[in-house]
Amino acid sequence: MATSATHRWSDNREALGFFVSAIFVLIGATRDVVLGGLVQTVSPLFVAATAFTLCTALLLPVAFLRSRDSLILLLRRPRELLWVNLTSMIAYIGFLFALKLMEPTLVQILYSGIGPLSVLWIENRLSAAHRRTPISALERRVYTGLLATLMFAAAIALLGYSGAGRQPIAVALGGIALAAGGGIMISVTTMLCKNLNDAGVAPAALLALRFPLTAIAAAALEWLMPTGIRSAPPSLDAVISIALMLIFTASYVNQLAISLASPLTIRAVLASGPVLIFLLQIVEGRLSTSPYTLAASLLYAVAAIAAGVARQRAIPSKSIGG
Fold first, then answer.
1. CB 311 within 8 A of CB 67
2. Element (H, E) at 185
3. CA–CA separation, 159 vs 141, rounded Å?
4. Where are the domains of the chain?
5. Which of 70, 67, 151, 161 shows the shortest CA–CA distance to 113?
6. pLDDT tens, 128-150?
7. pTM of the entire predicted model
8. d(CA 298, CA 317)
9. Within 13 Å, how many C-alpha atoms sit on residue 92's CB side?
10. CA-based R_g, the chain, Å
11. Helices 2-38 and 249-260 meet at what angle, rounded to 10?
């Protein structure tokens, strides 16, 4: 009886995590399109410093009042907290610079698409040999298809067939490297955050202490930039709306989803993100509409969902067999 109740609670948490992840996709798609336009005229470092300073400043008092035990628990794990800060810093700063160099839809394909591949590799590298989930022949084919989709998206950017048009090879390669590298780092962050949530750290407490290093590093790098190439900051209203409504809200919703669902479930939901971003790009009208980008986003959605389903099927089968 107790076991049945436990399974129902676990299923409910996973379903709720799926729903919250879907909300994050909607907010995140809006964020990516808006930020993609903003960082063309404003330094990504300025955006990161502003957003994550506000995020920390607003959530830390709330977490202190409502999740003090979680804050204490988190501070007793300085090594894990440092890694969460470091990987978050690399992921988000890389992501913002990628948006400056590439079409948002392609950035999200590479950023999210590398996730299932990196999560699988990391989990199998870090798990004990007897706990590793073997990769079936079907999974290998699915992951090969996902990798091919990412290569297709990268080729679109390199060949100038994206909505951003033809760019110097160095710029396109830089955008691809930043998007993929950021995606690997955010996958590591997701796994670290999930472990901390499972250890009893509340999402609000974790989010309150997740970004100080990002804010400090972005502010320091922006200050060190030559004055002549610094961009003028946008209006205060724009900063507040972008920081609070887009980055802050998206980060909180994503953190809540991480605390409820498995990383692979979250990644499966995120598969629809590039298609939604593509549609919002059409509404925004800043970039041309590329049929190649649309094809890449649809192929990615199919491949990412297939990868998530294949992995979810492999995990229970191992548990039953062993």
1. no
2. helix 169-198
3. 26
4. 32-321
5. 151
6. 444 555 677 777 888 899 999 99
7. 0.83
8. 29
9. 31
10. 20
11. 160
